[in-house]
Design a protein that fits this description.
two-stranded antiparallel sheet, globular, 9 helices, single chain, 187 residues
């Protein structure tokens, strides 16, 4: 994959497959891949089905390579360095902040356009610079690494704690147990 072209297909076992390229489709795929309420095989199967236009033509023996190609596409052609990344952004939780800052970068409402290639969307995302998102991510990063917050960051954090803190995501079983315990305590 070349960064100078916006790919609309990937090659798996020598065969070219058309793929979903709109940023909304990729964000939906990421949502499935990170859904703790589904089995791993189910997440992968649904994601591949959404990504590949002709998923039914893809032999099951090629699923591993198909997943690798999908991952490479989602990472905009950049190989994974193998280092576990610290989670500082949640595409779902931070959606409104991300969109607001991207809209500021491009000068129009990105949700209003009928199509926007994923790589273009990520290019805009990387161009955000100073703003709400960078402030929130900076504070999250310091908190995760145990670094001291500056006075203004402490003030921002105390005023926007719900926005800054990444919400814990629970599986269906964990939610059921939490509700059961709440009922016992309230009972």
């Amino acid at each position: 994959m070349s960064g100078w072209h916006l790919p609309s297909s990937v090659t798996v076992s020598g065969k070219t497959y058309a793929v979903a390229t709109d940023y909304r489709d990729i964000l939906e795929i990421i949502g499935y891949l990170t859904d703790e309420n589904s089995a791993v095989w189910e997440r992968l199967y649904l994601s591949l089905g959404l990504f590949y236009d002709d998923f039914t033509d893809l032999p099951e023996s090629d699923y591993k390579e198909a997943y690798d190609q999908m991952s490479l596409f989602i990472s905009c052609g950049e190989e994974d360095d193998g280092k576990p990344a610290v989670k500082l952004i949640d595409w779902e939780q931070d959606e409104n902040i991300i969109v607001a800052d991207i809209n500021k970068v491009v000068g129009y409402e990105v949700r209003a356009v009928p199509y926007l290639h994923w790589w273009t969307f990520i290019g805009y995302f990387r161009g955000i610079g100073e703003g709400q998102l960078s402030t929130i991510v900076g504070i999250r990063s310091k908190l995760k690494r145990g670094k001291k917050l500056d006075k203004w960051e402490k003030d921002y954090y105390s005023e926007h704690k719900k926005v800054v803190e990444l919400r814990q995501k629970y599986t269906a079983e964990e939610k059921a147990e939490i509700n059961r315990l709440k009922e016992m305590l309230d009972g």
